[in-house]
Design a protein that fits this description.
By secondary structure, this protein is α/β, with parallel strands linked by helices. Helices cover 46% and strands 15% of the residues. It has a single domain, classed as 3-Layer(aba) Sandwich (Rossmann fold).
Amino acid sequence: MVLERPVQAKPAQAMKPAIVVTGAASGIGRELARVAAREPLLEGSAMLLVDQSQQALEVLVAELGRPGAQSHGLCVDLTERGAGRRVEDALAEHGLYCDVLVNCAGILVYGPAAEVDRDQQLRLLDVNMRALTELTLRFVPAMAARRHGGVLNIGSITAYMPGPYVALYHASKAYVRSFTAALGAELAGTGVTVTCLNPGIVRTALSWHSSIGQTRLHKILPRTDPAKVAEVGWRAFRAGKRQVIPGLVNRIIVRAIGLIPEATVLRLITFLLRKR
């Protein structure tokens, strides 16, 4: 069942752990939900799947539902003020608390920053940064108090470089990477793990439904299946790693970027991110 509005919470003593996944209806988010649902170490945990697509959520909730397991969907726009409260209320309605938070919701906008619609770019920041931060800060304090839990944030190798024509997307992922690393250091020894998954180009609607799919960069770099990215990311999260970059080519790119002067990097990326 996909929730549209929260109702009265169950008594606190009935609360059970839940895995909350945003951006769960497609791409890496959907694959992470599938991986987490198969995780034997988390057997008994419920799942709250969060996305804007009600129909896709209903399909995924039905897929992941099985005897003895709870799977619920919440259709909500994370750019709306109060969205974080709706997530929390949806958990409470089912007698759940957030034990694992997977921040996968994201937006990509392609084009020169001075020309692309300003509202679209600000919406990107709201989803990629503000909503991720709000949900993390909403649920991490209770995790630390219980000395158990974790956060898996979805970043990107774009976090390691500036990105002309996708300036805000690259900047937002740099924020996610930095925020995750700092929070992980602060929570060391508390029993709460914080991981940033930084994939390269993945076969998802985020890239293919955008003009960035027509750039040189997307034509020359290898594209990874989201299921493989999810498997690598989830294993790294369960192992307590702070950062993970799936794929040898992606790791080489990130290492090389760190050795090249930024002016050279900018010229190269500008060329690669122009439409052919």
